[in-house]
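Structure representation.

___
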Amino acid sequence: MKPFSTAATGLAIAALLALPGLAETRVLGGQVHYHERILLPEGSLLMVEAHDAEERLLATLRAPTEGAQVPLAFALDVPTDTLLTLRAGLRWPDGGLWLTLPQDVAPGDADMHLGDLRARQTAPMGFASLLRCGATLLEVGIGADGARLRGEGGFRRLEAVPAASGARFEAPEDAGTWVWTRGAGATVSIAAAELPECSLVLPQDDLVQVWAIERLDGEALSQPERAEIGFTADGRLFASVGCNRMIGGYARHGGMLSLGQVASTLMACPAPLATEERRLTALLTEVDGYTLDGDGGMALTVHGAPVIAARVKTPD
């Protein structure tokens, strides 16, 4: 790794490399800030990620802000020979997200400072997918009430409309703003200006399925055959360790994950299920990311450390 320095004020953060063994790396640095005159709450988290063109996570950083205020500086080790998609932002203690827009970073050997990256408060989008429309990067999320499109102009709420093929969504107050997805491709228009043909980029392994929970904080469960957690494409989650059923919502942007408030049925659970259920509920409120191992395994993480280990659930 080459030496790197920044004159940015704020919180200087060391990088974490997600994929050890990369022969050549460089450092990407920058600052995350927002324009609103709002104090960043105690207990917030700085998050930075780099993905490749197929949305595989290459490098990630999670750092408690420890009372510091924006702008917050970061430095991230990344491979030199790969087109990267960089995401950065802040997770507030209540799970709310303030995110920058995804941006491409071209391959290169030299360390790079990206300057000021503006984070905006991000509405719930469920499973947000990346749209690459020429040089423009957007996110689209499908929810129970339609879809949301996220770009330079902020959020646009879209509603499903009839389409000859695929799925089409339009802004109810602006017929010139729409997204029409067809397989791995899409066309997008914003305020009647159609963008270049878009590719819809999804991770190779999909979070949206049912997972059998194997361990909580490294400990095996008493009834693993009944423990599960599932994610739906419209931003809902459900979970159980074998007693009560938990339901809630989630937001996913790249490898960043934020789980909303979880409700539960109210059956009395015998020990040790009651203890395991309390532990799962507490962990879910802290989860800020996930990783997939490419072999059917998934880990939900807190500050980069795995806390909930699961595997794709096979049908009975």
About this structure: The longest strand covers residues 25-33. The chain is about 5% helix and 50% strand.
